[in-house]
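Quick log. Single chain, no ligands specified.
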Amino acid sequence: MTEARSESLRRQQARLAAELRSQGKTWVEVAEVFRQRFRLNPRVALRAARGWSQARAAEEWNQRWPDEPKTFKSFSYWEIWPGKGGYTPSQDNLVRLAEIYECDVADLLADLPSFRHLDAATRTTFTVARGTSAVLTGETMVPREAEILLRDLLGRRPGAEAGAPPRADLTGLHRLPEEVDFGELAQVIVMWMQRIPDPQTRRSMLGKLTAALAVATTAPLTALAGSTAPANAALPSAGQGTFDPATLAHCEQMMPHLRKQGDVLGAGATLPSALAYRRTAEQQAKAATVGPQRDRAIAVYAELTQLAGWLCFNMGDYGSAQRLYDDARAAAHEARAVELVTYILCTMSHLATWQGKPRIGIDHAAAATAWAEQSSSPYARAYAADVAVRALTADGQADRSQANLDREYAALQEALADDGPRQSWWYFYDESFYWSTNAQQALGFHDADRVLAATDKTLSLIDPSNLHNRAFGLLFRAEAFARQRNIGQACRTATEAVELTSVNSSKRITQQVQKLRRGLDPWKRTRPVKELDQAVRSYRSTPLG
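-> predicted structure:
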């Protein structure tokens, strides 16, 4: 089954590459599309764009330079780098790779960070046009906009009013959360946090960053509402205003950015903004009178309410999450938004299963499946099956869990083959998410080797900006290593997840780390476990104890 699914992905990539090449796209341009669509690093994308396996790439190398032959393992090590287990390619090797792939050396390194911020003379204003995300500096790539945004945000006074001038020249800062590449921002934040050894200093810096980004995110909201009050001030009560299409459209546009902000910075940093937009959407929903107009406004309110519930879930506030989900479901039904109803029921299933109530999770998943059949969305059908897999796995129902996993994969392939528009809330759901659920199912019913194979898939495909989901993939992988009694590798993998999410406030990540650590108690006096404990103390605010 795994081989068939890999083949399906290769066929999809081959069709896409052929279509783009027929349009006159260069290999670099094709690879950039692959990076975005399939969540690949640039070295993998440039190879995959040609439809080559690592072995085929090695053959191309050996035809050119038979005196310095390489095997597929060399390409694997270069593609994993700079992650753990990878090997740094030499300058000569990078030049030769560029020749094989017909690209610049810079194209091979587009995922690497910059250290320009260490220079005190670094400017605090943007000097590159929008769309220029990186430049080559020595041997590293510079995600310039993300890095400068980070510096600018740290220069803003936390708690200042949205309209107050920042300390630096930050013209248009309030618009940047809509434009910033959260993948680059995540990369830069993680790099910065790893350089700060003192946990208190790190948390202080994070506090400044999240407060500033919250101000920047909600600034347009106060302008649209015609208010000069601070972004966290109470908005006009529902029913007092008039319907404004521009305000509602802005709420719609901000939802994807709020979701990505939550993935990178965590729920605590995002919830205040989400609640502020929810209040505005509620006002618009109650002010709207025309049928389609009113349905649209209520649907926006429902989606923002679900988002707030999701953030509460990740903060460990399950009671608030449940209340918000119930409110979101009722609103989505009122708006007759069938696909949104399906999505909300799926998140309710996830919440119940996480709380140790898999039978309730199964019930919500069954309701989601029924509503998904009434929608035209294969994403709805796939995700309904996904949450069913997790609930059934938690309830120990192996056969039904596997059946839903197979249904999920079939629906996902249908979704991926559809080039039409999709609802914004499905941004996270792709093949990497499927493989993460596959790993969870394998942890319940199969051996560690199957878990490791599934996590290999999810970590190779996942969006690098989704630190939340990547952390869970790493922690599932660490659990598999622990089952094999490979304690050193389990601890190193868990430490990578801890470091990756040093800026993410998700309590669920902390709980998953705690669960893993309890399983390592028999080895608590060993050096790897002690080093894991030290990493937790350094990078996360919640202790393991």
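DSSP finds 24 helices and two strands in the chain.
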